[in-house]
């Protein structure tokens, strides 16, 4: 799933490609992707792209007073095409293409979604806050306004909730997902199951530094990369996420996993849980 660093890089790449270009046509191949009807999709035809920005995990294409907002969800991605086919795409459950944006120079974007679970979302709105999920976003952890005091207030407010879930909840903090919550908790040497309001002052300082450093480093590495390079860049710098069974690059212990119904987390016992493996609750139920 694209998270804050990748979406930031996508916005930068798209800004360079789209600014001052006209949108000629938008073809929707997966009708479930379009979540709005007013303004109509056709209102974007003939508009000029003024800017591309990011809100949490959302991409926002500013076009002549309208906003084309995209949420790539778990399996969505954007591919640049120097030349798009002249024949409009046909709707197909087997085709990963969800949306095609055609520009005035014949180039364009293919917005795709792999897999059968279709969660990719596209909105055409007059204001970004007209998108429900965007309007309820928490603070962006890469802004100057996200201070250690803001983080402390969030953790106290969330009480005994597990810190992993708090970090990746978009209404609490915007932009951090499953992968980077694993990574920054590993960097902060904190258990993913630790209650949010139980951090000591030293642990709070360490977590805040990890959020800024892990995300900041990922943004810096991704900046300037073409969208085709971003997935590989992310995977090559993960220490624990999706690294189950491999040695921790910090201590050499084996990275372990806890599985849930539709996701999993990875962690290092030595670095994060005083050497104690966490119970894999899904496996425990299967063994009963």
Automatic annotation (TrEMBL):
Protein family (similarity comment): Belongs to the FPG family.
Molecular-function GO term, any one: 8-oxo-7,8-dihydroguanine DNA N-glycosylase activity
SMART domains named among the record's database cross-references: Fapy_DNA_glyco, H2TH
UniProt record, GO biological process: base-excision repair
InterPro entries: FPG_cat (IPR012319), FPG_N (IPR035937), H2TH_FPG (IPR015886), Ribosomal_uS13-like_H2TH (IPR010979), Znf_DNA_glyclase/AP_lyase (IPR000214), Znf_FPG/IleRS (IPR010663)
Name this protein carries in UniProt: Fpg/Nei family DNA glycosylase
Taxonomic superkingdom: Bacteria
Substrates-to-products reaction catalysed: Hydrolysis of DNA containing ring-opened 7-methylguanine residues, releasing 2,6-diamino-4-hydroxy-5-(N-methyl)formamidopyrimidine
Keyword DNA damage: yes
Coiled-coil regions listed in the entry: none
PROSITE patterns in the record: FPG_CAT, ZF_FPG_2
Keywords: DNA damage, DNA repair, DNA-binding, Glycosidase, Hydrolase, Lyase, Metal-binding, Multifunctional enzyme, Zinc, Zinc-finger
Cofactor: Zn(2+)
All copies of domain FPG-type, residue ranges: 239-273
Domain Formamidopyrimidine-DNA glycosylase catalytic, first and last residues per copy: 2-93
């Amino acid at each position: 799933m694209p998270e804050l660093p990748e979406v930031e890089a996508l916005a930068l790449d798209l800004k360079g490609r789209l600014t001052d270009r006209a949108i000629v046509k938008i073809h929707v191949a997966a009708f479930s992707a379009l979540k709005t009807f007013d303004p109509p999709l056709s209102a974007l035809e003939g508009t000029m792209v003024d800017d591309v920005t990011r809100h949490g995990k959302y991409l926002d294409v500013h076009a002549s007073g309208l906003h084309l907002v995209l949420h790539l969800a778990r399996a969505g991605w954007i591919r640049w095409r120097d030349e798009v086919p002249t024949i409009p795409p046909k709707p197909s459950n087997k085709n990963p293409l969800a949306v095609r944006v055609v520009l005035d120079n014949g180039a364009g974007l293919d917005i795709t979604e792999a897999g059968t679970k279709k969660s990719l979302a596209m909105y055409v709105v007059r204001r970004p806050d007209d998108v429900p999920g965007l309007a309820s976003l928490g603070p962006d952890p890469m802004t100057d306004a996200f201070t250690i005091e803001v983080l402390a207030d969030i953790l106290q407010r969330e009480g005994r909730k597990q810190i992993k879930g708090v970090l990746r909840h978009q209404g609490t903090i915007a932009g951090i997902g499953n992968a980077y919550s694993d990574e920054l908790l590993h960097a902060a040497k904190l258990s993913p199951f630790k209650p949010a309001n139980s951090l000591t002052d030293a642990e709070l300082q360490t977590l805040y530094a990890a959020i800024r450093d892990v995300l900041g480093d990922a943004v810096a590495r991704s900046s300037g990369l073409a969208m085709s390079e971003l997935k590989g860049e992310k995977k090559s710098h993960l220490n624990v996420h999706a690294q189950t069974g491999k040695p921790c690059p910090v201590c050499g212990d084996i990275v372990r996993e806890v599985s849930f119904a539709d996701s999993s987390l990875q962690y290092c016992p030595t670095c994060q849980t005083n050497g104690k493996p966490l119970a894999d609750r899904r496996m425990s139920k299967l063994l009963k």
